[in-house]
Amino acid sequence: MAAPVLTPRAVDFPRWYQEVVAKAELAENGPVRGTMVIRPYGYAIWELLQAELDRRIKAIGAVNAYFPLFIPESYLRREAEHVEGFSPELAVVTHGGGKELEEPVVVRPTSETIINASFARWIQSHRDLPLLINQWANVVRWELRPRLFLRTTEFLWQEGHTAHATEPDAHELALRVLREVYDATMAEIMAIPVLTGRKTERERFAGATTTWTCEGMMGDGKALQMATSHELGQNFSRAFDITFADESGSLVHAWQTSWGASTRLMGALIMAHGDDGGLRLPPALAPVQVVVVVARADQGVGEAAAALVDELRAAGVRAEVDDRTDTSFGRRVVDWELKGVPVRVEIGPRDLAAGQVTVVRRDTGDKQAVPQAAAAAGAIERLDLVQQALLAEAISRRSAATVEVATIEDAVAAAQTGFARLPAALLLDGGERRCNEAGVSVRCLQAPDGDLPAAGDELDGLVAVVARAY
Amino acid sequence: MAAPVLTPRAVDFPRWYQEVVAKAELAENGPVRGTMVIRPYGYAIWELLQAELDRRIKAIGAVNAYFPLFIPESYLRREAEHVEGFSPELAVVTHGGGKELEEPVVVRPTSETIINASFARWIQSHRDLPLLINQWANVVRWELRPRLFLRTTEFLWQEGHTAHATEPDAHELALRVLREVYDATMAEIMAIPVLTGRKTERERFAGATTTWTCEGMMGDGKALQMATSHELGQNFSRAFDITFADESGSLVHAWQTSWGASTRLMGALIMAHGDDGGLRLPPALAPVQVVVVVARADQGVGEAAAALVDELRAAGVRAEVDDRTDTSFGRRVVDWELKGVPVRVEIGPRDLAAGQVTVVRRDTGDKQAVPQAAAAAGAIERLDLVQQALLAEAISRRSAATVEVATIEDAVAAAQTGFARLPAALLLDGGERRCNEAGVSVRCLQAPDGDLPAAGDELDGLVAVVARAY
């Protein structure tokens, strides 16, 4: 038996992750510590995910715009919690155009401050509200313990920023984004089930009144925060003087939200679905959905493979032929499995002679002979099945690794292998701190039935989900 | 007569430009000098243009990837001309994560150096070539005299970087990009005719052996460099040690190209087509292609407008209804003209009673009554006409403002109002310097028939196009 292509997950999950990122050619380290090169295969996945998020962001009525990378240091200081939260992570430009700058500028760690400076100019009347803006951009947060996709000094993301006439309007928008943009993309496209809930005060975004979150479970039972949606109250509108004349003509400070999801989602995709053979991509995000592998290039095999790829492409499938017959068949199969291509069609001279092809599912390894004439239909049918099966499998795994507990100590113990649910009131009187000291954190607060709780800080009657986290 | 909405172009073209950018809500200045906020309407145009460029970039076989914003200062120094060219424009990060950095990092002014560090790892064999990579990113070049879209400290662009086994392969790719990506997008989508040609040694990119360019003529007769495609020879492959084993097994340095187009194209779009009423957008890039303006909201007018918008959208047209009848009809019309919407359909109660609507072309102002049942077809037909007419008009204007001259002095004189063509040999012996001292520059070198000349530095038998430039 050949040596395994990757360190098995059970042996060393972080090492397995690193190896998948490298061997599937997703990303590599940049020369400046903590920076990342996203390689073409990784970027192609990101582009597909971006398009799905962008479509849903526009569907809720937001429009895209672009704001500067450089923010005057003084802007950051206007909102007290915000500057305190981000100061330790800032990159600072002190020289520009060959001269020392009069006021240093920071490279945006997030764009609340600079976007709200524009909002203050754009918003005058209640007729200008709601204002829903989204930006696709790079941001920088100096990272001491970088890990590709998960924690990088520079990352790519979208950040939405909105302003509303009333607090309920802002609340409603924050939750709409959580559900219709993030939760929907994660479940339907990434095939990752997420818990949605409220962050505790300790885990809240710097400057928010309430932070809502989507938390996924990774293959090692740890949690990954996949996106957050913040209610900012009037914190930034007061700091940046964003006021509007209401219908009676009085000046009122706007109510705001902000929300973001980043290239971190690539890490989620790898860790939620990957197995010891490599990536397992949900078809909706696979740059190559079906690869047609020519086993040996003779007796019309190449022609049959090309015809099948044409047929698949005509049906809207992202299909590729692999006719690199100077590389061994086995090695090519290992490579396509590493890259997580959902469906593989193998064609060799013997198959063709029998009027059939072999269709293989990446998720289960299930391998079946299919009549040549039904090959395209068979591959397409399997794409749907793989998309559904990956989600179902992730849901089952999460259920199996989630336990109900009644004490902080039991929560910490259960969090070594998955999620623990406990009465949120136990977090009081140092309960949350004891969790943190034991290396686990409160991922979110939910109503006992899994629904979202009210905004604010109330813990009574809620359930806290506790886990180790990335 | 109402005061004109904009300073007329003939009175003060730069002021007209500033006013269009502001009043059409395309962009505004950021707080850090030279930075820019691209507002939603401007960004929507950019997104359409990006999609067109991206499609053509992928069609030539390039794939997208992403490289870090931060480059170690030492990387820039590896290619001597490159660092000399960019040093005066660099933004330098000296502090990160609360500490002074051991080695300062520069914010990328362009990514040749950091991308080639990856290429050195990715390229081993002739089988790895050609390698065609594109990146969509923000770059920073400290700008002392900023102008929105045209010269900004931070701008958005795409930059392509390729590596090839031979010099002819690199040459061919550089020209393919020039023609099939840039020239094609500019003519077919932006409706801007461009001159393609070679830059003189003096105007060449820092580190290139040959720079190819697309030069457009703006409404004031000045030139705008709209995109460039560079042959880099082996300059960067030697500096970054990018070698491959050729078929005989010898190690050879790769031959390279790089090429880019930026948000500067937004400036071209404004200045090539705009008139004293504002923008005139080519339909291919108009976020709103047809606006249906409700003159007065009674007697079924709103319903008729909504039905027409539905019909247009079903036909794939980007259509919007304007039923803000609390704002005067005239003011709304001025606003849609400012925003350059190519076709406007006006519907009022009197029109409806007569079974017709009024269809107005933004480019010519041509206004016609059209039977209500034919309104959608009439609007769609006009979109095609506007797209063609804007290109034809730009071609005529350029012809009328281009003259053949026989001396440097005549070239400088002619360049006050347009383009001058003169024998390139006149640039020798200080001819080009005399042009520059008189405030004009050599935009490109062409064969006498307008074709591209050979790569290199040869001037004999070529025509030089001289103009004032942005």
Would you kindly provide a written description of the structure presented here, covering whatever features stand out?
Two copies of one chain form a homodimer. Chain A is about 35% helix and about 25% strand. Chain A is built from 14 helices and 23 strands. Chain A has a seven-stranded mixed beta sheet, sandwiched between helices. The first copy, chain A, has a five-stranded mixed beta sheet with strand order 16-15-17-18-19, with helices on both faces. In chain A, helix 2 crosses helix 6 and helix 13 packs parallel to helix 14. The first copy, chain A, is globular and about 80 Å long. At the A-B interface, strand 2, helix 2, strand 3, strand 4 and strand 5 of A face strand 2, helix 2, strand 3, strand 4 and strand 5 of B. Strand 5 of chain A pairs antiparallel with strand 5 of chain B.
Summary tags:
homodimer, BirA Bifunctional Protein, domain 2, 23 strands, 34% helix, alpha+beta, five-stranded mixed β-sheet, globular, 470 residues, Rossmann fold, seven-stranded mixed β-sheet, 3 domains
